[in-house]
Specification:
single chain; 196 residues; alpha+beta; 8-stranded antiparallel beta sheet; 34% helix; 35% strand
Length: 196
Amino acid sequence: MSGEQIEAIAKNLLDGDQAVQVIGNAQMQQQLKIAKEADLPSGIKPEKCAELNAKYTVTDLTASVSATATSSSQAVGKVVQIFALTDDATRHNISKALKLDDLEGCEKVKLQLGGEQIEAERQILPLDVKADQSLTMSTSMDAGGGQTLTSVAVQALKGDKFVLVTLQTGTQQAAELSAQAVQLTDQAFAGLEAAQ
């Protein structure tokens, strides 16, 4: 699949949202190279949870044709990333990461964000995504001033296509967010299939 096709699918998914930005394959490749070499987020406590975090984070997605669309309305920030994978090793790494189904006592962690220590609570949500494998996780963080920031991330793999949808908001519950995230994920796969 071409970068243009994937870019069009990503853009189409957030059509109608406010302030949509799309990053095409050339820019994505630069970002993915940087991500591959970057350190995983530090400052996750307890220590074993930092190790677990590394297990379900695929850092090298350079072997792909990809695009990202983001929209940031006041209500919900959305990020949709679509990858057509170009090598088996990457697909295997993603598949391994998506098999994680237990947070092993790491439901509550402390993170370093901008020099502050923030408590985050995470859970794996058993949601039905139209894919071969998927992992959906919700995180709620204390954003200060009595506000809780909730985010839901769906990672899904179908054949050699990988979709990552992240929604974040201060106003909705994880259940509402996850329903939207799953819908976007399913639509992304439908768009990919239609384009082939």
